[in-house]
User: Which sequence fits this backbone?
């Protein structure tokens, strides 16, 4: 490596560390404020007393148990249906040549460029006509099919040798048997990576749930946390930080546990 390349690499590495620091600072502050009394939320003293009372207060002051349950049902239902729809569509695009398949796949890729917020008004009209406003199904229905999931699984399925599928057919497997016994097991890292993306997106989704939900019985964590932290409710940064950590802790834990599979899956994704 030449001297110029070393300088360039050092600058890039330093820039990455600076960006990472800017990203992690709000999270570090949330940890500090959540585990310290209110008077130490903006007073950074090393010997400040630690406390867990902020978490208890946050849990009591807002129906976070209900918010967690709503979010779990929304995220899990979306993910299950996405797995089914994306698997079938990805297999069709990966293994079958039919009239207009390339054009149809190109249209699906174009959908990746459309910001979901553009469709909020039309989605609300449809949910209203179906009487699904302020329901768990109404929150999740617009996301049941995913262009990104179809793309990611198609790329993975195309890397699986056709000989394995032919051997499964010789053994008497039908279409769904081939999918369950050949394609799905070999694509587990991709399913895991996509699950992390889908769960993190819908766990953090705010605008659409804010529009479509009106009651505690259907609000997810993001909307509930926004209402809980509203200025008219009184601002206690320690309790708000504790509530924020309660909301994001499942995602942080999931990414820490599965980050290797998450990164590996996207390294092998691409147009094939």
Assistant:
């Amino acid at each position: 490596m030449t001297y110029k390349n070393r300088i360039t690499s050092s600058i890039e590495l330093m820039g990455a560390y600076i960006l990472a620091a800017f990203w992690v600072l709000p999270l570090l502050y949330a940890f500090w404020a959540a585990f310290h009394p209110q008077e130490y939320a903006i007073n950074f003293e090393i010997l400040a007393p630690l406390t867990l009372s902020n978490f208890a207060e946050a849990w009591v002051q807002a129906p976070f148990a209900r918010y967690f349950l709503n979010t779990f049902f929304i995220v899990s239902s979306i993910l299950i249906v996405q797995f089914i729809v994306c698997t079938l569509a990805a297999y069709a695009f990966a293994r079958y040549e039919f009239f207009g398949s390339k054009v149809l796949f190109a249209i699906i890729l174009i959908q990746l460029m459309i910001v979901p917020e553009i469709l909020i008004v039309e989605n609300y009209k449809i949910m209203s006509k179906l009487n699904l406003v302020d329901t768990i199904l109404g929150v999740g229905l617009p996301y049941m099919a995913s262009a990104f999931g179809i793309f990611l699984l198609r790329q993975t399925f195309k890397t699986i040798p056709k000989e394995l599928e032919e051997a499964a057919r010789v053994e008497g497997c039908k279409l769904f048997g081939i999918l369950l016994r050949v394609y799905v097991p070999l694509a587990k890292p991709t399913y895991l990576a996509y699950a992390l993306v889908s769960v993190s997106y819908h766990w953090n989704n705010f605008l659409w749930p804010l529009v479509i939900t009106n009651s505690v019985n259907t609000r997810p964590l993001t909307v509930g946390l926004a209402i809980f932290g509203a200025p008219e409710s009184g601002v206690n940064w320690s309790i708000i930080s504790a509530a924020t950590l309660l909301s994001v802790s499942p995602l942080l834990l999931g990414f820490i546990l599965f980050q290797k599979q998450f990164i590996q899956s996207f390294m092998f994704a691409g147009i094939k």
Summary: Residues 153 and 191 are 8 Å apart (CA to CA). Residues 3-34 form the longest helix (32 residues). Residues 64-267 form a domain with the MetI-like fold fold (CATH 1.10.3720.10). The chain has 13 helices and no strands.
